[in-house]
From TrEMBL:
This is Uncharacterized protein. It comes from the Bacteria.
Length: 45
């Protein structure tokens, strides 16, 4: 793929990936909260 096409597209792709990661993280937290309502056991405390 020519750099002239790949370079302008890169920021958009990374932005979409970052957004997907954020949405996935939020979804994972909500799912964990729904499946395990109690605080997760921490190793240190």
């Amino acid at each position: 793929m020519p750099d002239s096409i790949a370079t302008p597209a890169a920021p958009t792709i990374y932005s979409v990936i970052a957004l997907m990661r954020t949405n996935y993280d939020a979804h994972a937290r909500l799912t964990a909260a729904a499946c395990w309502p109690l605080p997760a056991p921490s190793t240190g405390t």
